């Protein structure tokens, strides 16, 4: 997907319509601790690319926004997401 970065348009967002891991586990904590945080760290440490993964816990999608620093832990909405109730 295309977004605006510093006044210019860039194709820097990957939209995942359905995250199989999130859809299968139904667990916000597992999504954040086993996917979001390790993936962000890996891409930053290995390739020097900041990426902010933004899971959507309502429709089980996820966006990976390349070139965007993830918010601090205390400000990240994904880290404030409560666990799902039994489905």
Automatic annotation (TrEMBL):
<dbReference type="InterPro" id="IPR038938">
    <property type="entry name" value="D27-like"/>
</dbReference>
<protein>
    <recommendedName>
        <fullName>Beta-carotene isomerase D27-like C-terminal domain-containing protein</fullName>
    </recommendedName>
</protein>
<feature type="domain" description="Beta-carotene isomerase D27-like C-terminal">
    <location>
        <begin position="4"/>
        <end position="73"/>
    </location>
</feature>
<dbReference type="GO" id="GO:0005506">
    <property type="term" value="F:iron ion binding"/>
</dbReference>
<dbReference type="Pfam" id="PF13225">
    <property type="entry name" value="D27-like_C"/>
</dbReference>
<dbReference type="InterPro" id="IPR025114">
    <property type="entry name" value="D27-like_C"/>
</dbReference>
